[in-house]
């Protein structure tokens, strides 16, 4: 079953409001963000009718209770399943590319009903989430070596920030697969994003492609709480993992991240300077170095415009006007510390906005001259080609340019990925990286419903972001 839904760009803008309930500071001038919408709510109406989800969408409009929303989503069963990669792209575009981003849960319901979610085998979202918290997503991994070649804890360098997490817990969050070579091949650290764990984020896309490569030996992070807690603490896991992996492998590390994982890696580079010399390349996918003006829309509230509902700490910290973002950028985190290649979709990241051009949240400067390549496929790929089409927040994990430039960077240690060294025309002619199947792409798209389900079940909700820790206050200019 295919959906062909026309869409229209409306010139509305999304306003982010400072409120007494948020501890915020002014940073850059508020960027203008184009909100894509449908005349008369065409996507929700037409697609919802096709899928028989009219009542579901109406119910989601009438509640802000996380448990109720999860119960509603649990009842959505797939009415159709895409049978080709072009159909996946077209269906995702019909859901996210044209809907005003005010109720992501309605879009997730449409995604689940379109067969683009994790509802396989008749299991509901709650059951899938429960299974999601074990195995490759375990936060308690006991096979990691304790004999390291140099000190990494409590500090790898006198200039590093202090850790608040015990070393055993930091180490247990690193998942090292049985086939890891401990330095015979370059180690690659995979860092997940908000409401996710490294095992499932990368297992059906980049880890699958990198496993067996002569240029990469992937391991991944499973941060307790699924990256929903204080982002400053999440960053400790990244900083420790970089120094630990470098020590046990006697080599530098490449970091590949998704979403908040990129932001927290940049925080680690900023406040744990020892990590910079241990990283050959940084390859963040859909990062939000400037935060996102859509963070408020993820906060459940009767007043969704103001976003006054309680949020996970890391979500509040990713608001465009948060102190976390301001502190990072004021301390120099708006520019790369190591060779960096960023990947972001200008059409349309449903989680991070703005995400287009030099004002994109993912766009990183190069004041230190280390080498930066900022890759927006809708700019790089010829207009009308598959690679210039719709890719959402998770879609960049399977974009052909993403994998090709990761391999290019790994093959040229100490340099960012270079578009001049890859066959851009050929890559842009594909919907997904060669080697990935339709099932892999569907599973990657299904990361968004799982992430939103994890958000609905997380217990730590706040109105005010965690305070900036003393080491960051002393270093930054905020």
TrEMBL record:
InterPro entries on file: AB_hydrolase_fold, Stereospecific_Lipase
Domain of life per record: Eukaryota
Gene3D superfamilies: alpha/beta hydrolase
Protein name, UniProt field: Lipase B
Lineage of source species: Eukaryota, Fungi, Dikarya, Ascomycota, Pezizomycotina
């Amino acid at each position: 079953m295919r959906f062909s839904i026309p869409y229209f760009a409306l010139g509305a803008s999304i306003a982010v409001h400072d409120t007494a309930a948020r501890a915020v500071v002014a940073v850059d001038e508020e960027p203008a963000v184009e909100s894509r919408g449908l005349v008369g709510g065409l996507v929700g109406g037409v697609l919802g009718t096709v899928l028989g989800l009219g009542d579901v969408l109406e119910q989601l409009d009438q509640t802000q209770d996380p448990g109720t929303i999860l119960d509603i989503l649990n009842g959505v069963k797939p009415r159709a399943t895409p049978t080709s990669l072009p159909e996946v792209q077209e269906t995702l575009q019909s859901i996210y590319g044209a809907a005003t981003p005010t109720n992501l849960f309605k879009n997730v319901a449409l995604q689940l009903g379109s067969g683009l979610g994790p509802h396989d085998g008749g299991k509901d979202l709650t059951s899938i989430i429960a299974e999601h918290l074990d195995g490759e997503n375990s936060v308690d991994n006991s096979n990691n070596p304790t004999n390291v070649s140099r000190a990494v804890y409590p500090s790898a360098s006198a200039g590093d920030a202090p850790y608040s997490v015990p070393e055993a817990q930091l180490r247990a969050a690193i998942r090292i697969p049985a086939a890891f070579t401990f330095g015979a091949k370059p180690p690659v650290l995979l860092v997940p994003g908000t409401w996710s764990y490294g095992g499932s984020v990368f297992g059906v896309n980049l880890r699958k492609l990198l496993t067996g490569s002569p240029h990469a030996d992937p391991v991944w992070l499973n941060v307790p709480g699924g990256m929903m807690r204080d982002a400053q603490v999440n960053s400790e896991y990244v900083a420790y993992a970089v120094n630990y992996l470098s020590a046990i492998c006697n080599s530098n590390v490449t970091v590949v991240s998704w979403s908040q994982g990129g932001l927290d890696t940049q925080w680690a580079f900023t406040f744990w300077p020892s990590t910079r010399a241990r990283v050959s390349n940084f390859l963040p996918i859909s990062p939000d170095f400037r935060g996102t003006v859509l963070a408020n829309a993820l906060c459940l509230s009767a007043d969704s415009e103001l976003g006054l509902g309680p949020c996970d700490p890391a979500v509040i910290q990713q608001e465009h006007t948060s102190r976390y973002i301001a502190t990072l950028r004021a301390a120099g985190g708006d520019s790369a510390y190591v060779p960096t290649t960023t990947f972001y979709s200008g059409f349309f990241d449903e989680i991070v906005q703005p995400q287009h051009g030099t004002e994109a949240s993912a766009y990183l400067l190069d004041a230190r001259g280390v080498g930066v390549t900022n890759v927006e496929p809708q700019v790089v790929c010829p207009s009308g080609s598959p690679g210039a089409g719709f890719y959402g927040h998770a879609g960049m994990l399977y974009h052909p340019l993403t994998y090709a430039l990761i391999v290019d960077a790994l093959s040229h240690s100490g340099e960012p990925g270079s578009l001049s060294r890859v066959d851009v025309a050929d890559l842009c002619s594909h919907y997904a990286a060669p080697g990935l199947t339709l099932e892999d792409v569907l599973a990657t798209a299904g990361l968004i419903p799982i992430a939103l389900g994890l958000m609905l079940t997380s217990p730590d909700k706040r109105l005010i972001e965690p305070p900036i820790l003393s080491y960051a206050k002393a270093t930054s200019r905020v």
